[in-house]
Design goal:
Length: 551
């Protein structure tokens, strides 16, 4: 983005240093390649295409420059390299004759955790560091960044006030979690310096191959790092939590690092992941980004008493694990990253089903005491006003839907769908004070089963029990301390501006999340023009849990 095109409205500070932790490199050649790259892939962009109206015209390009370039052009971040030296190199602060170089580190710096350098045949001894060693070096790197930030008087930062952001791809998220969750690996005592963690396509619950967990004995290329039965509980210091939670390792103790400070960006496109000549996407299978299963790429907090806590924020994008159309080098993921780090408002979107109406024949079977089941697929798409991309995209064809089973639906409410972060500075029209986005909710017609036999008498593939879009706008108060106004409008009668009003006080937003329930129901229009509930159909409510962010 050209500097001249930047908005005058500033994004919300603070602007802490960003430490990027790259993902897994399998072979020695890949380790050499990543070590030779100053930004370890954080500097890769992509060019995608959008169709135009005329068939004869070429498609329209949409260029994403890269996370590093966009952080520099939009937020005035800079790299830390000076005269070919990294901040860990002895020549960064002083020259060969012992004279100070004058190099200083600004708060808006992008630092790369180059943990594969020791494994490289170019810079190291060829020995691949373990997850534990990489986590320890991350702790030490944060200490080094803190030292340099606090030494620069222009930053006006004291050691006790120093904070940084961790941004990690794939296995880098596991390195970050090992550092944050396992006190034994925090050798420099810098865990409290981390303000937020953002992960791209991290296998938080391990990697499945051919339908099963990576076995612990598969130590070649350190693939056992993704074994959730033995290896992951060790370096994540989870104790007996996996045994108490069905073998899960996608758990983050709230006392060590709050789940509210974590964002999980999930990829859903396996087709564009061509690692190992496409073998990875073949063995990992559907419902993945080509390497990591969608269901394994998110986190949930664990309370001090061992009960499950809040979900970490999450969003979904139709991007592969890596490559030209990978998740790191995507506009969708960058927009979520920027809003999570610097945004103003957080909206956690939940859905509660209050009633499910079965087809008449299926209902009759249930009334007769016969076993009924079905799997309801919940779709959700959300996009900000005036943009050409989704902040989150969950659809059935990409295996990214939330699923609700009929046999247990009353026990599983409400259902967390996604989190949306909004920013005043990202608006397309500065004269409009509102923060707005559109959201589509869809509930697919399921495959109904009667005593485990498929009932398809009235089935139309691809149909919906409910599908509608809603526009939600949040209007900040004109004067400090006054109420926010939240407006919304369903779009079933055509595109319309929000009209329904809800007042929310500024104190409520700052102190806790404000819940706004918006009802929905499947219906048809009768001969008199009245809405009539349909069968089959659903009735429920969307729950928007809105809170101030970075306030």
């Amino acid at each position: 983005m050209a500097k001249a095109a930047l908005k005058k409205t500033p994004w919300t500070p603070p602007y802490y240093p960003i430490i990027y932790v790259r993902g897994y490199a399998m072979t020695r050649g890949e380790m050499d390649q990543t070590s030779a790259d100053p930004f370890c892939g954080f500097n890769l962009g992509s060019t995608v295409y959008r169709a135009v109206a005329e068939r004869e015209r070429a498609p329209r390009k949409y260029v994403f420059e890269s996370p590093v370039v966009r952080l520099m052009s939009e937020f005035d971040y800079s790299d830390v390299y000076e005269d070919g030296q990294d901040i860990l190199d002895p020549g960064w602060e002083s020259s060969a004759d012992g004279q100070p170089t004058g190099n200083q580190l600004g708060s808006r710096s992008v630092v790369i955790h180059r943990y594969y350098d020791p494994a490289s045949s170019l810079f190291g001894g060829g020995k691949t560091p373990s997850i534990e060693e990489s986590a320890q070096r991350l702790s030490q790197l944060i200490a080094r960044v803190r030292e340099l930030i606090c030494a620069n008087p222009a930053n006006q930062v004291k050691p006790a006030d120093f904070r940084c952001y961790l941004v990690a791809h794939s296995m880098g998220g596991l390195v970050s979690r090992a550092f944050l969750q396992n006190p034994a690996l925090d050798v420099a005592k810098t865990q409290s310096c981390v303000d937020k963690l953002f992960t791209y396509a991290t296998p938080h619950n391990g990697i499945d191959v051919a339908g099963g967990n990576v076995p612990s004995w598969l130590t070649a290329f350190d693939i056992d790092n993704f074994d959730r039965d033995k290896r992951m509980p060790q370096y994540l210091a989870l104790g007996d939590l996996p045994k108490k939670n069905g073998g899960r390792v996608d758990l983050l103790p709230e006392a060590l690092f709050p789940s509210r400070k974590v964002f999980c960006m999930v990829g859903t496109n396996r087709a564009d992941y061509d690692a190992a000549a496409g073998l990875s996407r073949t063995f990992v299978g559907n419902g993945s980004d080509g390497l990591v299963k969608i269901e394994n790429a998110t986190l949930q907090g664990v309370n001090a008493d061992g009960s499950l806590g809040d979900y970490a924020a999450r969003a979904y994008a139709f991007r592969s694990h890596s490559g030209f159309y990978g998740i790191v080098n995507s506009e969708e993921a960058f927009q979520n990253l920027a809003r999570f780090l610097f945004g103003d408002v957080r909206v956690d979107v939940w859905m509660q089903l209050d009633e499910i109406r079965l087809p008449d024949k299926v209902q009759q079977a249930q009334d007769q005491g016969r076993e009924i089941d079905a799997l309801y697929q919940i779709e959700m798409l959300a996009s900000p006003r005036g943009k050409l991309w989704y902040l989150t995209r969950r659809v059935a064809e990409e295996d990214s839907v939330a699923c609700v089973r009929h046999a247990t639906w009353k026990k599983e409410v409400p259902h967390y769908l996604s989190s949306i972060f909004l920013s005043n500075a990202a608006k397309v029209d500065d004269s409009d004070r509102s923060l707005s986005y559109g959201m589509t909710l869809g509930i697919r017609v399921p495959d109904y089963e009667i005593e485990r036999k498929l009932w398809i008498n009235q089935h139309y593939e691809g149909g919906y029990l409910f599908r509608n879009s809603i526009v939600l706008s949040m209007i900040p108060p004109v004067r400090a301390g006054a109420a926010w106004k939240v407006r919304y409008a369903w779009q079933d009668a055509g595109v319309s501006s929000p009209t329904q009003d809800v007042d929310v006080s500024s104190d409520q937003l700052r102190q806790r999340a404000v819940n706004i329930d918006i009802p929905f129901e499947s219906f048809s229009i009768d001969a008199q023009g009245q809405r009539v509930p349909t069968r089959p159909g659903v009735k429920g409510k969307l729950q928007f849990r809105i809170s101030a962010w970075n306030a």
